[in-house]
Amino acid sequence: MNRYPRDFRGHGATPADAAWPNNARIAVQFVVNYEEGGENCILHGDAASEAFLSEIVGAAPWPAQRHWNMESIYDYGARAGFWRLHRLFTGAGIRPTVYGVASALARAPEQVEAMKEAGWEIASHGLKWIDYKDHDAKAETADMAEAIRLHTEVVGEAPRGWYCGRTSVNTVALAAETQAFDYISDTYDDDLPYWMDADGRDQLIIPYTLDCNDMRFATPQGFNSGDQFFAYLRDTFDALYAEGVDGAAKMMSVGLHCRLVGRPGRIQALKRFVEYIQGFEGVWTPRRIEIAEHWRAVHPPAVRGLRPCQMARPEFIEQFGGVFEHSPWIAERAFDLELGPAHDCAAGLHSALCRMFRSASRSERLGVLNAHPDLAGKLAAAKRLTAESTAEQASAGLDALTDAERAQFSEMNAAYVAKHGFPFIIAVKDHDKAGILRAFEQRIANETPVEFTTACKQVERIARLRLEDMF
């Protein structure tokens, strides 16, 4: 099967309102990444020094050497930056979520004690702050298990949330496989939580952010001043708050690092943003675990409907082989396309089926046209239509014609077929009986090439309506 795993569909064009507690218009969730003491360092058994997210422009790993400046910058986050953030958030009455690297937490007993006393959530940020892109699944699984064990030992309870950050392609699946986490945040693909199918089990995903994130103080294309950081956070908040006012409340994540925003020249921007949002009505500033608990209670996993991209060929053809009248070959060809989650809906599957219809030869498409019955014709009278065609014709009252109307349809059917070589086709659910008759009279006059194109479009429209009934 040619299947594409990425999900471009998400919550769709009109996401449901998050329905945050107390009718909040927005959930603003602050994350404090605690990584200091968990970064790459030969003291930690790593092959080289750290080179990521620091004040050193163009930093590169130093193989088999300690990088004193890099270590010192990370140390600042633990020694000063953390406490500056702690004072800000406790003073504002906000409890953030900590993404805590387990080995870093083990080296920070006072900071962990302060987090717990303030009621901050401590989620797992992995065992070490290293890149897992080249790790195999077995090695990554072992580190994940050790991260959970060490976190539990250091914090006193197991982490309920997970965010690795420097992931492999396997990270999310492996984290879900543990069944240890109420939520996983290693995605950046939405403004709302969502449920992911993890081998038949529903796993809650709470997406994170790399744009509303102080890491951009340490990237080439990023924030050069606190004013830029504040302006970007403010504009993001304003846009999402307005959506909440309009009845589609969202979530805003703000990512922070002790050694970055914890510097005096940056903390003021964060302070201004906290004060800014506190001037609005209906702003909820929860920990991530509270979002997870709310989502599970208010937006539980939906009953699983049709999932064409997961069907075996026989099931797929049996289910969709009749969408185009008596033409299962269209479904057979569509099954071989690159299908994915985007096709698990009426619009998506209609696209796949129509592609096969449109790419077929003219004679094949003509065969599909000729597979359609005459409107109110002999097959209808003999009750030999498909169930779909019977319901469709009945929806427009074509099952209850007078003798005169039936004779009129028969005469027009004959004239149309004689001229064009295929039956008159129209999506009857879009019309009433009078409208169908008007279209009949107008389209008989068309040139056959024009009418062939029109009929094909009507075939596609009928297919779409049938799929909407299925989904």
From TrEMBL:
Keywords associated with the record: Purine metabolism
PROSITE patterns attached here? Answer: NODB (PS51677)
Q: Which Gene3D superfamilies match?
A: Glycoside hydrolase/deacetylase, Oxo-4-hydroxy-4-carboxy-5-ureidoimidazoline decarboxylase
Start and end residues of each NodB homology domain:
68-286
Q: What does this protein do?
A: Is involved in generating a small heat-stable compound (Nod), an acylated oligomer of N-acetylglucosamine, that stimulates mitosis in various plant protoplasts.
UniProt similarity note: Belongs to the polysaccharide deacetylase family.
Quote the protein name from its UniProt record.
Answer: Chitooligosaccharide deacetylase
